[in-house]
Amino acid sequence: MGVSVSALVDKLRARQSLSLDEYEALIASRTPQLSDELAEHAREVCEAVYGNAVFVRGLIELSNYCDNNCLYCGIRRDSMACERYRLSLEDVLDCVDLQHCIGQYNEGVRNAPRKVQARQILGIPESSTRPSSAR
Q1: Where is average pLDDT lowest: 46-55, 88-97, 121-130?
Q2: For residues 11-33, b (16+ Cβ closer than 10 Å) or e, as one string?
Q3: CA-angle at 59, arms to 54 and 65, nearest 5°
Q4: Neighbours of 43 (CB within 10 A)
Q5: pLDDT band at 115, cuts 50/70/90?
Q6: Is 77:68 a contact under the CB 8 Å cutoff?
Q7: The pLDDT of residue 92
Q8: pLDDT for residue 50 is more than 70
């Protein structure tokens, strides 16, 4: 790729994105000065979008049972060091209620990587768009 580093930086500033090859070229050309320049630009973009506000996101983890066995992970399939759990639909709804009581409206629901889907864990039929017991 014959594009200069400064041209890549300019393109990144203008479009907020590069191609994979362009990112690779930028990383390969990295210097402390370039890293500082890109970090400063990232701070400027962040401040322009979010200001100095703090955003809290609550994540409801349905289960810590996992089919994967990633060596770095504390909830990996073969780990005996963690206490396993699986939330019921009622538990999830209680978590959502609590989050709303404290003003948290950006919750996400996720499950450790499993072949079993969240609907199966919570006993929600595939045809249902919302649990009938949702409050």
Answers
A1: 121-130
A2: bbeeeeebeeebeebbeeeeeee
A3: 150
A4: 10
A5: low
A6: yes
A7: 84
A8: yes
Query: Any idea of the CA torsion for 92, 94, 99, 102, to the nearest 10 degrees?
Result: -170
pTM: 0.47
Amino acid at 27: I
pLDDT in tens, 4-47: 999 999 999 999 899 999 999 999 999 999 999 999 999 999 99
Q: List the beta bridge partners of residue 60.
A: 109
- Bridging pattern class, strands 59-61 and 108-110: parallel
Measured from the Cβ of residue 122, the count of other Cβ atoms closer than 10 Å reads 20
Residue 70 contacts residue 76 (beta carbons within 8 Å): yes
74 within 8 A of 81, measured Cβ to Cβ: yes
Distance, CA of 129 to CA of 110 (rounded, Å): 17
User: Residue 125's pLDDT is what?
Assistant: 66
Is residue 45 a contact partner of residue 93, using CB atoms and an 8 Å limit? no
State in Å, rounded, how far the first CA of the chain is from the last one. Answer: 56
